[in-house]
């Protein structure tokens, strides 16, 4: 099947699943289409000897999910997500977001790795500590996409929403960097070369990605400011995302971090100082549609991916991974918020919202699938898929109950004359 045929098929299936969800289930789109795709996959597996099932498995196996997300969809999703984040709100929550997205990811990586290594040993699975640490790195990044719509629809107070979304945007990029460093460490520990030293790799990816994103955002802002034609300006942002992400990969810096920083720059300084009102309206509409469509495609693929992963599934370890990852999230987010309370005030239920609202998504599956083939990789992929499906379907459907417990922000006293 050609590239266009594959794209047409995936888009058609996504549109049909989106219609079914909107017409009958009426769930948030990421959750609804994932559920329908998962039920479809289970239905096909029940009739495992059918030609349709074998064809679907072969088709999904040929899509190369990890490359599709990491080298394609991710750049557009992160840029679109950061484009609508208010930089002033983000700055007010700057240090908490920075701590959660860096120290929190590192703590979660270590805790998940330790718990999974012990759990795998108790269940009789051969999973070395280095591989358990790699699993901790790939499962620690949280996904802002599904929970963002839920929090906004519930009218959650703005500071908590900014904290959850800001952390998710940045820990996606930091998580990829930590994952690469963990894989590099694993390769060195097993005598396979391992490439650059993990610390050097981390600094090059993180600092380089942030700097590149700032540079690309500024250059695009200057170009946008020099013209007043919304079609050209939207095209410039498209070029920023596609070309910028490709450049980041060529320079071996973090493309996800670069796109987040560029999106924040264009969404704030570029929008306010370099665009007319009509351009801002077209830009917002365009990227909101891109965000919705690509997220629907991504979550449909997540639901259908079980057709490829179902064979030889280590259910005991996969099921154990779900509570262990939640425990690690509680330790990392809870310890960070406890330390930060000395200087910042957080409303009650903030930690619970961070834990239960810390959904995992396609980036974790893509990172797991990008690992070299082997028995350890199969264990990591199965655990990742179990955690992702649980977080999308169970946490995604119930996070609203947790978020509603957060008290409303107190009204500010009016300024005097």
Question: In words, what does this structure look like?
Answer:
By secondary structure, the chain is an all-alpha fold. The chain contains 19 helices and no strands. The longest helix is centred in the middle third of the chain and has 32 residues, at 158-189. Residues 413-417 have low confidence and may be disordered.
Quick synopsis:
By secondary structure, the chain is mostly helical. It has helices at residues 3-25, 29-46, 51-62, 65-83, 87-92, 94-101, 103-123, 129-139, 144-154, 158-189, 198-225, 230-251, 255-274, 277-304, 306-309, 315-340, 350-356, 362-369, 375-403. It has a single domain, classed as Up-down Bundle (Na+/H+ antiporter like fold), CATH 1.20.1530.
Helix residue percentage:
over 70%
Tell me the number of structural domains: 1
User: What portion of residues belong to β-strands?
Assistant: under 5%
Q: From the helix content, strand content and strand pairing, which structural class follows?
A: mainly alpha
Q: How would the blueprint of this fold be written?
A:
Elements: H1 3-25, H2 29-46, H3 51-62, H4 65-83, H5 87-92, H6 94-101, H7 103-123, H8 129-139, H9 144-154, H10 158-189, H11 198-225, H12 230-251, H13 255-274, H14 277-304, H15 306-309, H16 315-340, H17 350-356, H18 362-369, H19 375-403
What key attributes describe this structure?
single chain; 417 residues; mainly alpha; Na+/H+ antiporter like fold; 19 helices; globular; disordered C terminus
């Amino acid at each position: 099947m050609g590239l266009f045929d594959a794209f047409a098929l995936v888009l058609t299936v996504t549109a049909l699943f989106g219609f079914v969800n909107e017409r009958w289930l009426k769930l948030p789109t990421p959750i609804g289409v994932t559920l329908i795709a998962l039920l479809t996959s289970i239905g096909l597996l029940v009739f495992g000897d059918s030609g349709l099932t074998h064809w679907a498995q072969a088709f999904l196996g040929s899509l190369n999910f990890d490359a599709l997300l990491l080298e394609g969809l991710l750049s557009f999703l992160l840029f679109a997500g950061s484009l609508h984040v208010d930089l002033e709100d983000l700055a007010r929550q700057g240090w908490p977001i920075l701590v959660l997205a860096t120290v929190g990811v590192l703590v979660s990586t270590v805790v998940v790795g330790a718990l999974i290594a012990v759990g795998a040993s108790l269940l009789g699975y051969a999973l070395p500590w280095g591989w358990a640490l790699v699993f901790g790195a790939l499962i620690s990044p949280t996904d802002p996409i599904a929970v963002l719509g839920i929090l906004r629809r519930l009218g959650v107070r703005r500071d908590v929403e900014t904290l959850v979304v800001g952390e998710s945007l940045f820990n996606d990029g930091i998580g990829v960097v930590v994952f690469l460093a963990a894989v590099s460490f694993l390769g060195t520990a097993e005598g396979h070369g391992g490439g650059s030293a993990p610390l050097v790799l981390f600094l090059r990816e993180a600092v380089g990605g942030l700097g590149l994103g700032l540079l690309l955002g500024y250059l695009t802002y200057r170009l946008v400011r020099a013209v007043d034609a919304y079609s050209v300006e939207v095209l410039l942002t498209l070029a920023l995302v596609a070309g910028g992400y490709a450049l980041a990969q060529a320079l071996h810096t973090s493309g996800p971090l670069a796109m987040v920083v560029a999106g924040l720059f264009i969404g704030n300084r570029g929008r306010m100082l370099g665009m007319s009102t009509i351009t801002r309206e077209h830009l917002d509409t365009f990227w909101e549609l891109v965000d919705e469509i690509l997220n629907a495609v991504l979550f449909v693929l997540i639901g259908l991916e079980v057709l490829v992963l179902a064979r030889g599934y280590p259910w005991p370890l996969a099921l154990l991974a779900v509570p262990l990852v939640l425990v690690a999230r509680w330790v990392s987010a809870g310890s960070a918020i406890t330390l930060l309370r000395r200087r910042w005030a957080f409303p009650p239920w903030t930690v619970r919202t961070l834990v239960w609202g810390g959904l995992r998504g396609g980036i974790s599956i893509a990172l797991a699938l990008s690992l070299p083939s082997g028995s350890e990789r199969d264990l990591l992929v199965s655990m990742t898929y179990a955690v992702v499906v649980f977080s999308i379907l169970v946490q995604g459907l119930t996070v609203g109950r947790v978020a509603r417990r957060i008290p409303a922000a107190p009204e500010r006293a009016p300024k005097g004359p």
